[in-house]
Protein 1
Amino acid sequence: MTLFTAEEVLNKLQEGESFVGAELSRINLEDCILDDGNFTQAYLRGANLSRAFCQGTNFFQANLMLANLTETNLVCANLSHAELNRACLQRANCRSLQASYTKLYGASLDLLNGIDANFSKSDMREIKAQKANFSRANLNQVNLTSAQLIKCDFTETSLRSAILEQADLSSSILIKTDLEKSNLHRYICLNSHWKNCNLVSANLSESDIRSSQIQDTEILGANCINASFTDSVLEHCSFLSADLNFALFDRVKLVEISFQDANLEQTIWKNVEFINCEVMGAMFTDAQGLTDAQKNWLKNNGALNVPR
């Protein structure tokens, strides 16, 4: 591989040359115009690309580990199969970015614009992406284990079969978000707004969903064992055939919720309001905290094994 200076890089780009497999580690390309350049398989470890213009630039299979891409323009760029472990992409414009199968372990994505970006099947474990915008992004099968996704926008985002185990989505917006078959085991989601989301067959076991508002969301067949819905409001949601064994409903308002055929064994209920809910076939074996009036109402509406 050949080692280039920043000046040589810019001159060669103007001449239409590519940098396929080039050795560019720790190069300083801050504020440089690299639009539509070809850096396929280039070695850019620790490079400074902050505020650079990389619109449409090809970084396929490039090594950008520890690189600085702060405020970099990556609109329509290609980072697929690239390595960006521990890289900094704070405030980067990644709109319509192609970044499937990309390694972003421990990267910083705070305030990133990821609208319409494709991060499918990427390794995004332990990323920090506070106040990032992932609206309409493709995050299918992404690994977001232990990611910090606080105050993020996931409007119309697809997270099918994604791994969000122990991730923190507190104060985030989830509107028309698709999380079907996603793994949300032990994830945290405080003070969040959910609306028209798809959580069919998702794993929400041991999750902490406190002080949130969940509306018009499908949670059919989901695993919600030992999940906590403390201080939340749920409206027009369906837990049809969901497993809610040991779940905690503390100071929860339930408006037109379907628990039909759900497993609610050993659940805990404290200061809960049932308003026009469906409980036909729901199993309440060893449930705790229900008032006598609630027990009678549950029995009269088809719930099973309601405690005496």
Note: The helical segments are 6-14, 292-300.
Protein 2
Amino acid sequence: MVYIPRKYRHYNAVLYLMFAECPIILPVLILTGIASHDTYTTRLWQDGANNGFNSAPNQIVYALTNGNSYAVPMVWSSFLYNYDLVIGVLSTFFILTKVPVHVLRFFHPPVSAFVHGALCVLYAAAASFQAGHDTTDSRHPQNGPPWYITKSCSVAYSPGNVGYCKQAKALFAMTVIATAIYFAQTVLALISCFTTKEEREAYHQRKEEKQEERDAEDRALREYEEILKSPAFGPGMPITPGLTPMQSAYFPGQHPQYQYGMSPYTPHFGGFVNSAPSPAAVAFTGYYQPQPSSISTSPSSDLPLRDPHFDVKTPSFGGRQITVTEVEQPYFPPPPKKATK
């Protein structure tokens, strides 16, 4: 059985690093968006050539005129600012996605190690490209990072390039910081991937307990289905001792066991049913059989379904019987008479 770790050993540390990543990735996205479409790369290249720090952009024309091939240094190429823009957008998408997923405990350590490891490699490559060398001009070789990283922006040949120099310097600094953050997140995720023996045993124990719970639920459902399918469950099921099944007052004529326990005067359509047991019915079925009683049709009765033979006992309270005359009757005033002209 393959065990996939789903918990971090340092959950809060990973969450704090994600929050610290936000103020780094957003400036990276902004700066790479500004640098795209060669906003200042060629200008900084030409400014360094004017100061004698690196080669000049017009060497491409000289090389093509003489029929020679010329490879633009990576630090001044269009591939660099396009590459920076792509990883800026990609990392912004991941930071907007992984934070809520991590809070919901779905961003497992193996996935985190893969994502952050890939981002760490991409940002490390971006930092390496930005700090690349330029040795295409033998008279002005640049063996280390470009001048806008190693020198102050105040040495710019053109004052208008000072702001671009600061943007390029800030982009390089943000790229290095993002690389360090992704490296730390990758290390924390890898530490959580290597579990101990106690953690694996606890995981297997929890899994066995969940499996036992599911098995118990399945057994209970199967037993319930067997009870429903058994012939004893239905109209012919005998009465359980101590229980009195009741019958609906409006559907007489069911099985005798459901008529047991009916009141002496159970109402139904058209009158009352006298459920007093007959000896023959009891001897034959062992249950009470209801017998239809006479329906009162006396015009003197104030209720059409009242049985004149039904004895209404006077209720008592505290040993004292209450008569009908003692009960306060509601007063209904007579309807108003029509006025005569």
Note: Residues 54 and 140 are 5 Å apart (CA to CA).
